[in-house]
Predict the structure.
Amino acid sequence: MIRLIVIYLIIGFVFSLAKAITDKNIKSSYGFEKGKQPSYWGLLWWIVAISLLWPLGVWFLVEPFILEFAYDWADKREPRDASKPFQVKPEHLIKACILEEIEAEAMVHDPLGFVPNKPFGHLNALWVAFRDKLPMDAKLWSFKAQWGTTKWNQALLEGYVVSDGRTIGPHVVVKRRAI
């Protein structure tokens, strides 16, 4: 640990000394010009302060590049168009499912009790609302689809949809993962 502190201070000392030697403003501020009385104590305090706080100097050198990248990245992101919500397509369908199978596979067993011991756990209310609106003869299919407007905001959606294999009805998304 002491080695790390010594290395940190050495880097800071070298950084501050190099800055003091090469920067004309620092030289003139502390009187290192012809005809002026130099302030050795002032320069010493400046070197000690910079030796301790040198990562801030590095941050101010690097910050413009980081922020420029962040702004460029934010500009490339486009918000999802609310007028174009996600739609399940026939190519997203995976396999036909039975309601009882779905609920059995999605049953959560949390011994700590943080998640309700019901199908889909915390999403159980969403599932029950979807299930209760299903017609009696509904055929359910599982689906998996990639969705997003740009390459910057893609998500992988998984869930269940009412379908006969050709036409698509209402759906419920039970898993969403950003990619």
